[in-house]
Specification:
The complex is a heterodimer. Chain A has 16 helices and 15 strands. Chain A is of the alpha+beta class. In chain A, helix 15 packs across helix 16. By secondary structure, chain B is of the alpha/beta class. Chain B has a single domain, classed as Amidase signature (AS) domain (Amidase signature (AS) enzymes, Alpha-Beta Complex), CATH 3.90.1300.10. The N and C termini of chain B lie close together (about 10 Å). The chains are: A alpha+beta, B alpha/beta. The interface between A and B is large, with 28 and 43 residues.
Amino acid sequence: MEWEVVIGLETHTQLKTNTKIFSGASIKYGAEPNTQACEVSIALPGVLPVLNKEAVQCAIKFGLAINAHIAPRSVFARKNYFYPDLPKGYQISQFELPVVGKGAVTMQVPAVGKNAAYEKVVNITRAHLEEDAGKSVHGAVEGMSGIDLNRAGTPLLEIVTEPDMRSAAEAVAYAKKLHELVQWIGICDGNMQEGSFRCDVNVSVRPKGTEKLGTRREIKNLNSFKFMTQAIEYETRWQIETLEDGGTIQQATVLFNPDTGETKAMRSKEEANDYRYFPDPDLLPLVISEADKDAVRAKMPELPEAMKARFEAQYALSSYDANALTTSRDLANYFVATVDAGADAKQAANWIMGALTAKLNETGIDISKSNISSLALASLLKRLQDGTLANNGAKVAFEEMWTSLSASAISTVTITASLSFIDEIIAAKGLKQESDSGAIEAIIDEVLAANAAMVEEFKAGKEKAFNALVGQAMKASKGKANPAQVNDILKKKLS
Amino acid sequence: MINSSLKQLGEMLQAKKISSVELTQTFLDRIQQYNPSINAYISLDETKTLAQAKAADARIAAGNVAPLTGIPIAQKDIFCAKGWQTTCGSKMLANFIAPYDAHIITQFDAAGAVNLGKTNMDEFAMGSSNETSYFGGVKNPWSFDRVPGGSSGGSAAAVAARLCAAATGTDTGGSIRQPASLCGFTGLKPTYGAVSRFGMIAFASSLDQAGPMAKSAEDCALMMNVMAGFDERDSTSLNREKEDYTRDLAKPLQGLKVGLPKEYFSEGLDADVGKVIEAAIAEYKKLGAEIIDISLPNTGLSIPVYYVLAPAEASSNLSRYDGVRYGHRAAEYTDLMDMYNKSRAEGFGAEVKRRILIGTYVLSAGYYDAYYLKAQQIRRLIAQDFVEAFKKCDVIMGPAAPSTAFKAGEKVDDPVAMYLQDIYTISTNLAGLPGMSIPAGFAQSDDGVSLPVGLQIIGNYFDEARMLNVAHQYQQVTDWHTRMPAGLE
């Protein structure tokens, strides 16, 4: 039987506010335990929650970004359960009436093996505001458990999808797109290691072609895309094998173990809590007016989809390039700044996604802090464009710029300064492209004389021999000869 | 001096006829003398109290005075007061020292009032007789074998026995008005949202409201001037202009339309109490009021609705008492679940446990719609009854409690009989309306004891100033509010 996997995601996005969602305590990561636990965080008797308006603005921003219905009236509810790191004995969340309703996220699912890349729309069911719990710390003191309430009350936006995804690749593409989007609109720092973006993945399988959803198991708290892929693939195989062996799937929450690459049930449905949700009487319904939405809209950055379309039209970029350049706002800004400084758009796109991205990945440096500024890259590309540099020379110059710019305090804040800087490198390293036709002709004559056999082959009709001769000529010029000129002269000589 | 009004005390203090330290010491001495038998206070801290009195005297000397500067006020032990043991009447919080001040404590401090001590109460404000307190019952100063009412029973006894100049209380279903009726003084539950709940330990958040308990309407007005007002730390606090609750006290009542709901004068009302209320209504007629018969048809549903909603909220509000961070934790336990179970089993009393169980039940999957949602719907109908009624009248009057003070132990084993004590007060909490009880006379008990009866006045939203005016005018022509229990002079 052929099986189909059905996947839905619930993502806890930590909002980039200054303070907690219901109190004035800081949410800065990594503070000493309980130093950011105010009266409200500890849930002392008599304390009350007061909603942080910044968190609401984040929710509105997200709603606008995915074209969702933003509820004019939504309600905070209490989710009741006992746990030591849940100080009130309930979590303030939203249940029946969430702040963000139905919307959609569109993304590219990348090519895998023989399957080409394609566009996919994932429908968002809802997104709701809620508070995070604290942390239980086991083993810090022998035989004791500690509670750190610094994180308790941190604002979260939980984003829930429809069960729209049909492969691990689609799920990960969605998660990546969402990850890009929440950072793009500035509501989340996206730091998965610190838990700012945590995905729970609901996985079920069904015979291909059937409608009815299978029983799902929820994989909790995946904090990297790599683990997400592994976990979904393992879970899918496990469910299919279980069913094919005549077993049944029990609804359950499972944890992924990165060491074994396996998923394991944490608790089954039988042990699940009855959360006894009811509207929190300490908080008024959250009312969002058209004016509130307009105010947020006015401050919204151009969204990636719109920017992608603009890049294609304005800079004649391919859909692929435009998509790649709009995966983060910093990247897109860098590209625009490079082009604005005079670089050719297509060339800028190639260099940014090629050499620069490779370098940034290799060094772990963020593009916003790149050694080579957009102005510096634009100068390099200008010298490539005007023929001063050949491709090889440009690569050497790029490396040289990366090192010397990080090692020195050379200012490349103006295009003039950047250009004189690149010109110094070209001069110092002797990278200038040879465009003197006399000099190139001399080199070619030498090459022809030394490679008589190849010349014969070419004349006998072997086209490949021509390229070999160009290669020899370039080599003889130490890569500095202008390749177009080499081509032209060689053609003339052989005709 | 102990019978003086707050206004008189303020004048004496400002004229330096007495000092705050002297006045405070007078009450501390009385507390020393009578509290061991009455048990109105859970915690006293003479050092803190007298330090505040000294500070008040310094303020007065510097001419920096407010109406309540230097006046000793008893605080219900439901309000967190920094450095004070704050128990809410429960073993669960018997060891809890509040590290912060409730909004109203801050307000009294700013006014220069003196915190005289924390008063006894039903555990987590759940009760109508003060008998659920972990710290023991409170005697009704009019008859020591009777209850003072509840849940603000300690504050009630303290006001009635003149163990304070005035006190604070909270009212979730009648906890200010029913004890005011049973102990013969003036108590006001303000409109929901008029007084900030910040720092007031929650019982049922959508119903809880703090208010003054004092000898007269004028005293209550002065207390309200300190207690009421917007506080951004309570999202349900209403952002309104600060008002002077004494502004209308002197207004004549000519033409006042008084509504009498027939449901408040039917089965269940003690006949002698009914007579006292009728006499009070007659007095209002003399003052120029017009009496109008009205109906609040859903009154009978208020108790069942309340005993779904209040426990539902309470079951959640009391979840924080888990022994993890503060409060009672069992001495020995085997694992986390055992710690929860033992700590809560030991820390909570029977009535609190009963309400947690009811609340947990009505919120459970499968029961939520039938209980909680249905109760919310009826709650709106009850509020609508009042909207209709206030189209016909300015204030509503009736009894505050169905009977006079009952004997200690009489209803402890019959929760439903106890719950019926709040039959006339609960619907105003459900509607969020202000209500007050004022002394209206006395009724003879079966065993021949003369016990106070309270007249309830219910006003429209934010109509406290008018209600205080209505009460004050009655208190100008009657002296019930000046009576004091015998033997406590």
